[in-house]
Amino acid sequence: MNISPQQDLIREESAARDIDTQKNKWTHKYIIRIAVYSCLCIALSILGVFSVQASKTIQYYNNKIYPNISIGNIPVGSLTKEQALAKINKIYTKGNSLSLKFVLNEQMVASISQKELGYSLPFTQAVEKAYAIARDENPILKYKTILLLLASQEQYRIVIQPQYNTRVITVNLQKIDDSFRTDPVNARFEFKDNKVTDFRKEEEGFSINKNSALATIEDLLTSQEVMQGKKKTLAIQLKTRTIMPDITLSDINQLGISELISEGKSQFHGSSAERIYNITLGSQRLNGIIIKPGETFSFINALGEISGATGFKASYVIKSGKTVLGDGGGICQVSTTMYRSALHAGLPILERHAHTYRVGYYEQDSPPGFDATIYSPSVDLQFKNDYTTPILIQTSVDQNNLTLSISFYGTKDNRVITLSQPNISNQIAAPPTEYVDDPTLGAGVVKQIEYSAPGASVSFNYSVQKNGKITTEDTFSSNYTPWKAVFLRGT
């Protein structure tokens, strides 16, 4: 095959171009390698310089806190721990000059000293925390933090948390609340002839807002003003919170009180004027009380303090196995009558105590065993309202017939109440009458201080059925000690 001179020239030019292309490829790769090696060398050089500088920096701050670190608002960078501690000790409070003053209605009602509070500032711990920054075991994190601190790109602030005894504060707040708290008073009303006839508007109560006070105290004790000693007497303005009554006048039409549920009665012929007075006063204080569904009624709590200071007179009471004069003698006539009404209403009796001996007043219109004694604060009469509607207590004293009536109003629920006849056993005659000479009485004067009563054991069964199911079943027992009559005789 013959090749023309022109074709031969084209081939030579093509071969030359291939050789040039190959040369260019090797030249480009060579340049890239040189550039990479150069960058690597530069990077290693920079890293070496940085490592040397970092080592020098770490060495310089070996016993110093790194820069741009503060405790509170006090810069402590580049200081040793000792220097930092000395610096903040000069600025922050020391000694026992701090005090809390609790103020209610513009009057100081309590105070707590710094010593009682146990208030202190943990400076040493704060300095240790500041010193520990950028000393992480992870070298990458450590160098990163150091670099940022040195370049002022990052700042650390150690917050000082004061140490103090919060229990001292809560105890004081509780004492203040106990002293000044006012409990709410429920609306009360009279129920007569199937309608409400007498209103008393509810009263709101108030108590100390302890949570608000605690938050205020915490804010103050952690403030820079207090920690730096610029403010040493802290006046805590106590706020109050309103306690709403459970029952208001607007609730009355929703209570469901529509009929008489039960009534308890007792007679007290032969009572002294003081005893009659106490019976009347005690029953008046219980008149109109409403027992909510599910609520437990406590006779002692409902009646309140029994003393001369609350209006009761001295009359005979049973105390420590003796009949003696005491404030409120006769109140057990009220508790006994309340007990009888609770039984007739078919309520669960949670607490009831018999008298030490048989008291004649409680057997004038009742067999023995249906009495209930109370003695504040531990001997109580308690029962529960297990109706679905409230129970209204109505009390009435017939001064002419010396009869006390306590009625419960609400809504009946078809419960069936069964009270057995009392079983009386172990009857023991009263001991012989005793005469005690008393030189304080005139010659020939005789005064009876104890009345005789035979002893006995009495029990009766009590059951309540609702919808064919027994809901309450109990046996109430009373053991009465035989009691002798005692007369004082003047000599």
From TrEMBL:
Signal peptide extent: none
The protein's name: YoaR-like putative peptidoglycan binding domain-containing protein
Domain YoaR-like putative peptidoglycan binding, chain residue ranges per copy: 111-223
Pfam family for this entry, one: PG_binding_4
Transmembrane domains' residue ranges: 30-52
KW Acyltransferase (keyword) present: no
Domain of life of the native organism: Bacteria
UniProt entry keywords in alphabetical sequence: Membrane, Transmembrane, Transmembrane helix
Keyword Transferase: no
